[in-house]
Amino acid sequence: MRTPLIAGNWKMHDTLSEARSLVTGLVEGLDAACGVEVLICPAFQLLFPMAKAIADTPIQMGAQNAHEATHGAFTGEVSVPMIAETGATQVIIGHSERRHVFGEKGDQLNKKVRAVVSGGLTAIYCVGETLEEREAGKTKDVVRRQMDEVVGSDVPADKLVIAYEPVWAIGTGKTATPQQAQEVHAFLRGQLAEIYDATTAETIRILYGGSVKPGNAADLMGQSDIDGALVGGASLVAADFLAIIAAAAAAVPAS
Fold first, then answer.
1. Rounded-to-integer distance, Cα 169 and Cα 53, Å
2. What residue segments make up the domains of the chain, in order of their start?
3. Residue among 58, 125, 136 nearest 90 (CA)
């Protein structure tokens, strides 16, 4: 059985004092035995202090991006070894904002994912379509291309998480229906079976990202191929993030 993962992408939010307050609220409200893995992905300058803040708690930490090189003259960039040194265990790669705002393409994302896994960390690789692509019936074509550009059998399955984030649902208040999300998640799992094999595909978690909130989390988490969420704005409010974690916990089958 795949353990649900609820990941909070803080994006470019929170000062150090705000981040400490947020983590305090999460730690106080989190049931360590809930059966859900919890991940926070703060901005780079918060990684070291947040590692200290979550020490001896079940909360994991990741980064929002990484450069594909281990070192070099790349002003403003951060490498995987630098991230690993903070205690982070996962890195988000290919978020729609990295693609559409910063122009990252498949060949670069391919290198980034391999840099992450070569550095011993887990890559959370994001795929998803724009509104125009969905309305044109191209959703599956788009996510297949994005997967083909980056995911290959040389990427260790135990170091890979996929996040489906329809671009039209990020920060817009719109959310894919549970049925729409499940359809794409099932398609992605089928593609993973082609890349690896059916057994391996069943072990890889596929998260949903796109305006996940306490009010829609339970319906989304109840879908058979949705293994958690990549949460944006709601991860910045402890009560909301905890409610999403609780919804994921409630969807875990009783042992």
1. 31
2. 5-27+43-236
3. 125
Dist. CA 2–CA 176, nearest whole Å: 22
Nearest to 67 by CA among 112, 101, 107, 121: 112
Say whether pTM exceeds 0.90. Answer: yes
- Phi, psi (deg, nearest 5) at residue 97: -70, -35
Question: Model confidence at 252, in pLDDT bands (50, 70, 90)?
Answer: confident
For residue 45, which amino acid is it? Q
Rg value, the chain, Cα = 17
DSSP string for residues in 84-140: HHTT--EEEES-HHHHHTT---HHHHHHHHHHHHHTTPEEEEEE---HHHHHTT-HH
User: Tokens in use for 66?
Assistant: 């990484």
Q: Specify whether the CB–CB gap between 51 and 87 falls below 8 A.
A: yes
* Token representation of residue 164: 């489906």
| pLDDT computed for residue 32 by the predictor | 84
Q: How far is CA 61 from CA 20, 65, 79, 81, 115, in A?
A: 14, 13, 16, 15, 18
Asked if residue 175 has pLDDT above 80, the reply is no
Report residue 123 as tokens: 């890559």
| Positions marked catalytic | 95, 165
Q: Which CATH superfamily hosts domain 5-27+43-236?
A: Aldolase class I (3.20.20.70)
- Amino acid in position 183: E
Which residue type sits at 144?
R
Contact 89, 121 (CB under 8 A): yes
